[in-house]
Amino acid sequence: MRGEEDKLEILEELKQVCGGLKERLEFLGRSGVGFLPKAKRPLPCANPTALYDGTPGGFEAFAPCAKHPLWEGSAFGCWMIGGAAAVWAASVSGPCRSPFPEEGLLQLGRMLNWLAGEIKATAPDMEGFRLVVAARCVEGGELAIQDASLKAMPAIEGWLSETDAKAVLLLGENARAAFMPGAEVQLGKELSSKGRRLLATWPPDEIAAGAQPLRREAHNHLKAFILSIQP
After folding, report:
1. Which domain holds residue 12?
2. Quick one: 198 and 123 in the same domain?
3. Sheet holding 167-171, edge to edge
4. What is the CATH number of the domain that holds 78?
5. Structure pTM?
6. With a cut of 50, which residues of the chain have pLDDT below it?
């Protein structure tokens, strides 16, 4: 019997609670307070990662998604200096005219022209370089450098094979992560991968904005790269 009495008491308490809630809701309704159902969170954009592979001239029209104009990704600029290559990889967001800041391109031009003179090679074309960009609209979620590299590296590897580059200067953290995923890469120290010699340094925009000690260190990296190129 006691168990039945307990159930009745619980039911009575629940009725009182519900009655109190009903009175409060009616009061709020008379006061002009409305209630809206919680909006469902929109699903991420299903558009996959898109790839741009060409020259800088056609990049401005690049759009990974037809529905959403804003996008993020990683850009890889590739230049040839004699039998060696330089790859600058940087995060990029769009739409935009260029994936790299102008001051960085100017600094890179000075670096590669000096390098070409030292190894007696033709100065690289700073405007007609190979550009590979892996990107996804912001509605599709963040694109990690690892995912961007998986999309971009086959095109970059194809370009390196066509040019028969024996050594690659890696400019910036994104370039190091793309060519040597998961590895601790020391700046200015030569490494080997897929039959090529690799050497990493700072990205050109950081060198341009850096203090004299950083510029001196980057210059020493270029000297080390010359030694890696020479037979």
Report:
1. 1-37
2. yes
3. 50-54, 130-137, 71-81, 84-94, 167-171, 196-201, 191-193
4. 3.40.470
5. 0.79
6. none
Residue 42 belongs to a domain:
no
Co-location of 105 and 25 in the same domain: no
Q: Which residue in the block uniquely carries the two structure tokens 């970059």?
A: 156
Structural tokens at position 125: 């074309």
| Residue among 172, 226, 167, 224 nearest 192 (CA) | 167
pLDDT at position 230: 74
Give buried/exposed letters for 32-60 (b at 16+ CB in 10 A, else e): eeeeeeeeeeeeebebebbbbbeebeebe
| Same domain, yes or no: 170 and 202 | yes
CA distance 174 to 171: 8
Supply the DSSP symbol for 76.
Answer: E
Q: How many domains does the chain have?
A: 2
Strands (E), the chain: 50-54, 71-81, 84-94, 130-137, 167-171, 191-193, 196-201
Q: What is the pLDDT of residues 62-91, one digit of tens each?
A: 999 988 999 999 999 999 999 999 999 999
Same domain for 9 and 61?
A: no
Q: What is residue 209's predicted lDDT score, i.e. its pLDDT?
A: 93
Which residues, at least 6 apart from 16, have a Cβ–Cβ distance to it below 8 Å?
none
- 2 plus 66 within the same structural domain: no
